[in-house]
Amino acid sequence: MRIGIDIDGVLVDLVRFVADYGSKFCYENNIPYTVKKDEYNEAEALGITNEQVEKFWNTYLTFYAKNYPARNFASEVITKLRKKHEVYIITARNEEGLPKETYGTMQNMVKKWLIDNKIEYDKLIFTGENKLATCIENHIDMMIDDAPHNVKEISTKIPVLCFDNPYNESLEGNNIIRVYSWYDILNKIS
Fold first, then answer.
1. What is the pTM of this model?
2. Are residues 45 and 127 located together in one domain of the fold?
């Protein structure tokens, strides 16, 4: 079986990062905010403007992409999965929004982060927002994702293990299997 795995929200606890570093950013910049973990979009999750979100990511994106740790047991479970399955990392982390002179930086940061966090894979794919097309092109049999729009769209064609986050708790339907941890993923795939 070929398994696709998302990074943000699946390999990394994005909710925790946005709550921790978003509130720090807002405090240090005297920006009123509210933390709403049930919102996927950072502007809505913090109650700030898109321009403020852009400044937040300009401040913390490099730190996040290079240093923020993988979820507990992600490396361990993926190593076990690769004994029987192919693992494709499929991420929407791309160069969009980065200055042209830094092109290639995000891809290099992702590759190094995967090595640093001992995340093994058979193929790494940088894609846009349409992960369904990427899954179909690469013959993915099962996708692990968290983003509500991706879970809904991909599940129309292949099973999705929906990594539980406050912003996707209401998602359910055919081909959507909720998972709560990396060992829960291993259990459900086994």
1. 0.93
2. no
